[in-house]
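Changelog-adjacent note: as of this version, every example in the card shows the full chain rather than a window. The one below runs 460 residues end to end.
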Amino acid sequence: MEGYAPNEEDIRKVLAYNSGHQLFVDDSLRKSNPAIEDMVAYISRQLNRDIVTLSKVKSYYSDAPYGFVEEDIYFLLAVLFKGNKVSLKLNSEILSAVNTDSKDIYKYLTQSTYRDKLVIESRIATKTEYIIAAKDVFKECFTVPVTAVEEDGIMKIMQDYIIDKIRYIYDHIYPHYASHNKYANYYRGKGAVDSYCHLLKNCLTYQETSGFFKYFFDNKASILDAYEDYTPVETFFDENTPRQYDLFNKACDQYKIYEKNEELLRDTEVAERGKAIGAIIHMEQPYGKIKDLQDLIESFRSAYVDFLETKAEPIKAEIKRQYEDVANYIEDAGIKEEIFARRYKSKYDDLLKCAEETHDLQELYACKAQGGEIKVSCIEDIKAHQSQAKEKAKREDNGQEQVPATPTAERPIKNLYISDIVTKGVVEIKNKDDIDKFIDGIRGKLEAVIKTGDTIKFYR
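Full-length structure tokens:
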């Protein structure tokens, strides 16, 4: 390189160069043009025969007729590297501005430790249409302009944004689809999320810019289609705009009420509202219809409350009538002990309170059934009491020791629904161990109730 002697500072400047202008604009770099062209040709020739290492290049250009000093050779390679004329590999890994700091590149070029390990290859020029396609996709999916001009710089910017997006998907979107989320079965769009995330991950497998940009050129339509399907899902779960997400969850809660009481609500206004809510939340892409859920939720709640009140009145009247029957039966039986009257009045008072306050239609109907069971229990108690009284009188007549008659001890009744015992959410059973685990969980809950001294009654 006649008339020009680059030093360490020049080499470091070239490697750290991050401008959009061509490297050869600078006068000092122009002076190296003949040597650059010669080195490119030499590397190309040698690659047809064998692997080209830094050691081979250094040895070739140190001898006659070149007689270059080390700084000349390192400078030329730095220019070729930054000018996208050659690529560098260390331990089979491609070195670039994307994955390697310029200070490390300088170390690999200049330290003797790496001379036989650093491999130099001709770099395949990336087609302009590949880069344009990648920029188009990036602008559409990330709405961020790519300011870098050099290939490595463009690739680095795109990869950083893509990695952030994948991390966001795993941290903020996938958790909503987890089995422990009670709404997970209602959420749509997981397939769209999977597809978009998969396409983004694939582009990160390319180390060379040519393959990276070609991937976007080949998959441009697929990526844009996947992005279009993914976007409404991200908007739905966006924590900064929770309107859709919260409204959808509320709709799911109302639909669960309808689903639980579907048979009892057949051919009613409540059922029509419940079906309308279900039609939206079960859509493959409900996002455009979520705005309609607010009115449906309000009308469903209103209709359900009205229906509940309508059904509650005759049931409360029936509970009161059942208590009157019990009170009359106790009086007709000539039972003087107040414990009977107090016990059963307390039970019917609790039952009446439940019927007045419950928002569960099945529980309301269960109150009526429980009233009948209490009545039967009362009659059995009185019969047992009367039997004890007869036995007492008989013993007295025979001169036997008196045994005080007491009302039959009764264990408190714990009224439960199957849903109170069975684990809520999705239970996945694959084998016998899963069955045993599921049953053991139910057994534990039942045993805990029995230990308190309660008798369990189930209502479906």
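Structural remarks: The first strand starts at residue 86 and ends at 90.
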